[in-house]
Amino acid sequence: MRFMTSLRFIDAVAREKSIRKAAEKLAITSTALNRRILQIEDEIGQPLFERLASGVRLNTAGELFVQHIRAQQADLARVQSQIADLSGIRRGHVRVASGTETLRHFLPDVIARYRSEHKAVTFDISRQHGEAAEAALASLETDLALIFEPIRRSDFQTIATTRQAVYCCMAETHELASLDSIRLHHLLDVPVILPTMHSGIRQLLNVGLMRRNMQLATMLETDSQEFTQNYLRNEQVVGFQIPIGLPQDMAEGRPVNGLIARPIDSVDVPQGTLHIGHLRGRVLPVAAAKFMDLMITELGDRFPKDLDQ
Amino acid sequence: MRFMTSLRFIDAVAREKSIRKAAEKLAITSTALNRRILQIEDEIGQPLFERLASGVRLNTAGELFVQHIRAQQADLARVQSQIADLSGIRRGHVRVASGTETLRHFLPDVIARYRSEHKAVTFDISRQHGEAAEAALASLETDLALIFEPIRRSDFQTIATTRQAVYCCMAETHELASLDSIRLHHLLDVPVILPTMHSGIRQLLNVGLMRRNMQLATMLETDSQEFTQNYLRNEQVVGFQIPIGLPQDMAEGRPVNGLIARPIDSVDVPQGTLHIGHLRGRVLPVAAAKFMDLMITELGDRFPKDLDQ
DNA sequence: AATAGCGATGCGTTTTTTGCACCACCTGTT
DNA sequence: AACAGGTGGTGCAAAAAACGCATCGCTATT
To answer: Fewer CB within 10 A of the terminal residue: chain A, N end or C end?
Structure first.
């Protein structure tokens, strides 16, 4: 899109906070880029950047203008996607921000299913915890977000939710594996791997622990679900996960690859809510809107009684 | 704004439905314009116009794209206005659509008051009846609308309203001038000048007439309030107006330049509502938002007890 | 059949954009 | 205090893009 060039360039400079660095990324010389910016500033009638010794920084006017540019880019993407949809070929680009829970099984499955019908749609999956995902939506860096507890901003528009209990994961040889449902007191003195504070799972656990004034024997804290799942095979420790992050068999109580999952009694730890949504007031590109529909369908298939639309 | 050129051109062609005509208006050759359009269509990957023997016409994709262009232009105007506001100088352009009622006294007064403080703000006043004004808002051709009864579209967002009774205007020598309040039966066989069907005043009158199964002795129908007011001096006929369209003295029952106004009893003809508002969901340019504030203040001054915010 | 109006295209000219070399300036290090 | 390495800004010539003229092919009207 030729007519977007200058605007894209300004956006790039704002991100890089340096004309020369941005020029390198954009594969042009810094002088050409510099002059484009001077020209736009001239047309606006006011500078958009403060010039510092170490580079440039947006001033207030620049902040406003860059915000406009991003909104404009997002709307253009929507229109393009809608136009492409007219000709039958659905093309486009969908950007999803999500916590780690859905990255293992849910998103790969849904995307594969979507791509099997629409090869011309590409994806951008960024792993981000709730607060960052909401910020990414607001700055139009992403189209959709999947957030597991809690929603903080009022400009997040939830489209669908599903209730998810917290499960304990462990080797099937673990002493707690024989229980159907786990109470918090079972976990006393059992070594556990906890997700970091950013995680919704951790926050739900905290609620339960605070209520009972308990502490867990935390052997390790990590934001990697993958590490956790793999480590459980090596030592008799307990990790935590929600059903959407587990293979279907494990979520239903059967062992998979030597691991097994057991729900924590909701008397001890409340169930959490997984939210699917987007920025309030935004009209999504067709591809993103349809992908969201598919995610919701898939959620309904996996958790028929816990889906809310 | 250089980066808007191609988009502005497309908008112009869409309006003119002809490349050559648009080129003339834009003061370039048709070939340059033609090539810009071909280039954009090439970048979009699909034609935006249908080529007819008599010119061009937007296809579906074009409709979508032009809508995007207009939204983009409106948002750019807002950002520019906001940026200008940062530097203390309020500059900008305010576009108002309104029926004839407010064009005589209200809008001229308010604009003069506004311009006395902000000389850098320019105005565009388009006289349009309610339905057309709403359409102009929706297509982003205007920023604000003043509509006297009724509001038809759900995307019109009312910001303030004021109740207005319908008044009869006549020469002070007219036989009805001695009454304080006029009943519909007084108007039987009195020659009247009616506003056209588009007018809210006419529609309110119709409500009263239908209810009583009456007809007026319509000597003339016009959409020009100016003509009506001037004609009343020449013949013993009655015209209709709402207070906001009258000089303050006349609205308060005193004669002005040989003319006098008397309210119709609200038992016969219901009061109407004058709405000030904009397109739902739009963020207005600073200049327009502040102008709207001033209009509302002014309304409050003129009709203290009938203003609703 | 002739005509008038439309959008599209080839080509030479004009305008705009780009890249190179270099300047002035600031910052942190030697 | 001198210096090296970074920043944005500018003069000038080359490259690229946009433009205008002449002209084509097509269609609807006369």
So the answer is: C
Instruction: Convert the pLDDT of each residue in B166-177 to its tens digit.
Output: 999 999 999 999
Residues of A (25-44) whose Cβ lies below 8 Å from B: 39-40, 43-44
Work out the average pLDDT over A44-64. Answer: 88
Q: How many CA atoms lie less than 13 Å away from B20 in the CB half-sphere? A: 4
pLDDT of residue A281: 82
Helices (H), A27-139: 30-44, 60-86, 106-117, 130-138
Pick A2's closest partner by Cβ from B43, B80, B83: B43
Measured at the CA of B5, the angle between CA B3 and CA B9, to 5 degrees, comes to 150
State the DSSP H helix or E strand holding residue B114, giving kind and residue range, or none if neither. Answer: helix B106-117
What does the block give as tokens for A10? Answer: 């300004």
The C-alpha torsion from A226 through A230 and A231 to A232, rounded to 10°, is: 110
A3's enclosing H/E stretch is none
pTM above 0.90, yes or no: no
Residue pair B140/B155 in contact (Cβ under 8 Å)? The answer is no
Phi, psi of A142 (to 5 degrees): -145, 160
Nucleotide nearest to B21 (CA to C1'): C6
pLDDT band, residue A296 (cuts 50/70/90):
very high
Residue listed under structure tokens 């001077």: A38
Asked if B87's CB is within 8 angstroms of A44's CB, the reply is no
Q: What residue spans of chain A are helical by DSSP H?
A: 5-16, 19-26, 30-44, 60-86, 106-117, 130-138, 200-211, 225-231, 248-251, 286-302
Angle separating helix axes B60-86 and B286-302, nearest 10 degrees = 80
